[in-house]
Amino acid sequence: MKLPALLASLLLASFASAAQLTIEQTATGGAIVKVDGQIFAEYIVDQANKPYLAPVFGPTGKQMTRNYPMKTVEGEQHDHPHHRGICFGHEGINGIQSWAEQLTFGEGAKKSEKASTLGSEKHREFKKIEAKGDSVVLVSIIDYLDASGKKYLEEERTMTFRADGKTRSIDMQQILSATEGPAKFEDKKDAGLSIRVPTEMAVEIEKNKKGNGHIINSEGLKDAGAWGKRAKWCDYYGTVGGENVGVAILNHPSSFRFPTPWHVRTYGLFTANPFGTKSLDKDAPDGAYELKKGEYTFLRHLFLFHPGDEKEGMVAEAYEAYSKQ
User: Fold this and answer.
1) What does pTM read for this prediction?
2) Domains with residue ranges and CATH for the chain
3) Burial code of 267-299, b = ≥16 C-beta within 10 A, e = fewer?
């Protein structure tokens, strides 16, 4: 076979083996993204006070999000029921919080002070649902509501799903707009974009009980030492079902308060939190701020699901490419 014909043959073979991403809407108003017919992630809009992605599966087929509270699985941690898969929340915008949910406080706490500030993020509609073969784009319009159902903020959330032979990724772009009037963001530890990793991948499953996971950020800080520190990216890796896998969150330079502080816990919570400054570092200035009506905050992060640790997953290299987009 001549060289041009060989190259053409190899190129065609690569296209034939490329992962095909598809999307379908669910009967409950959400959507499911699949890779070659197998589930990658489900966007759920009707089960809590916020939309979330769960379950989410990595490139080896291992589930990369904790089941609880969507399912109760023996051997899993059953703390913090508001840590649902991949989600976004904030403990104080205009005095309203969407970080927690009613399940956090329990049925007997409906009149407690914290429960009385509980609002919701209500998925209103999909602005775009598009499958391009090598990617899927899902744009969700979300209304932020107070306890009485009054809107105080709006979000346009663009999620771009991709997959290749070794990695899967979700590029999350969020525009938080003060559409109704001023929006006051408090400096809170519990705020931002999160993933709750599988229990066995936690650094510490519970006090004095080690998991098999590790945390490392772009500055080389590890495990508990990475909490509250600013970094361009952070990676959480460990063993899930006998395989070494990880998930990194990359913070794009265009994102609000880049590089973000990381509210990343050894028990499995993994959050990019640009809203918490003094609440994460007592020596930092208070990070509270206000959007006037018509103003917005822009956030952009990439979830990178990869094999092995941050080196095998080539997280630093992925960040360099991502940062130039």
Assistant:
1) 0.93
2) 48-323 (2.70.98)
3) bbbbbbbbbbbebbeeeeeebeeebeeeebbeb
